[in-house]
């Protein structure tokens, strides 16, 4: 393990994260039908205008009774009561229960006034005119009280909550037909590189299939954003600006991949230097060459390195949290767990290493998926987490504890 001082030529990961996050403002709030709110962030607290349940109702199919009428009932000495009413769920005109009688009642149906308990049908002879009950009941048995889930005026969801199925369920249950949510961040994903061709076409020697654009657009959508993909932008500065121009209006964030390192044909760097984007080396591996800024003072830009794993890891570390924050989500980071490493690893000094791994929540262990190389995309595809090896750590033994960022 080494404890070197931070390298002044490298930007700290946290600093670049903050710079990227500061580029994006929260998106506008749109009142949106509930069915279209899945995955969006709630913009205001949701307060219940009604209680849940809205009225006292039965938890079982059975008979609404007065518990005192069944005080002497038992398996050998049933009590017989006349069945006066049938109360299915949804019946709105339920008459009160008179002493010494029963109403047949279904799960979710309103409990008649006068009843203080429900006897499940299994504890009776299931009679429809008269019913024989083989058990006594406690007052309140099998009743669900109005407001016991949610009181009127209670906050059921707070602003910033990510709306999943359960959250949409409770919103519908309190009667919300639409919710104020942040609109998705609109992202233009642009990939450059003369060596790139579309999957599905023949590959010439020296060519590779374009994968970063598709991958990053999918990552944007997975993060809740809207993605437009612009591929095969030529390695030519004028062509780059021309390709970009028609898309800038309505784009909140431009993400590029490739063309930023030290070579002779770095179109992204050449086109964006002097046009509002700063390039830097971040103290991480993979993902060292990074850039961000505002294209000609307007649209936010993040330039990601072209190596596929570098692109994907950089998206996770810098872009995803910024997208989530701009879209109003309170939780912007992936969950992090501590895991026990199943094998040793080495890492570069002065850089935070993100290795790809598989975390087993059952054993709390993590195993590496592939070597550190930032072109090794298959390991990334097998991974369900990224190991975060701190900047000052250059080796870890098997059995060490390491932080893992869960990806799914
Ligand atoms: N002399 C130096 N060379 C390199 C340095 C350096 O500091 N000095 N940094 C290395 C590191 S680290 C990285 S990461 C890469 C970053 O390079 P670029 O961002 O300029 O990316 P490219 O050169 O355009 O491509 C790198 C690699 O990735 C492939 N690629 C690019 N785009 C795509 C795409 N859309 N789909 C699939 N694959 C893509 C490309 O073919 C290259 O193999 O630079 C190192 N070099
Ligand atoms: O930083 Mo590069 O991303 O190591 O391969």
Describe this structure in words.
This protein is an alpha/beta fold. It folds into 4 domains: about 15-25 and about 185-325, Molybdenum Cofactor Biosythetic Enzyme, Chain A, CATH 3.40.980; about 30-50 and about 155-180, Alpha-Beta Complex (Molybdopterin biosynthesis moea protein, domain 2), CATH 3.90.105.10; about 55-145, Molybdopterin biosynthesis moea protein, domain 3 (Molybdopterin biosynthesis moeA protein, domain 3, Beta Complex), CATH 2.170.190.11; about 335-405, MoeA, C-terminal, domain IV (Beta-clip), CATH 2.40.340. It is about 15% helix and about 30% strand. It contains 7 helices and 27 strands. The chain has helices spanning about 15-20, 165-175, 210-220, 235-245, 265-270, 310-325, 375-380, and strands at about 30-35, 45, 55-60, 60-65, 80-85, 100-105, 115-120, 130-135, 145, 155, 180, 185-190, 195, 210, 225-235, 255, 275-280, 285, 290-295, 300-305, 335-340, 345, 350-360, 365-370, 385-390, 395, 400-405. Strands 15-12-16-20-19-17 form a 6-stranded mixed sheet, sandwiched between helices. α3 packs parallel to α6 (about 310-325). The longest helix has 19 residues, at about 310-325. It is elongated. The two termini are about 30 Å apart. The structure holds ligand LQZAQKY5 and molybdate ion. Ligand LQZAQKY5 binds near residues 195, 211, 259, 305 and 308. Ligand LQZAQKY5 binds near residues 208 and 266.
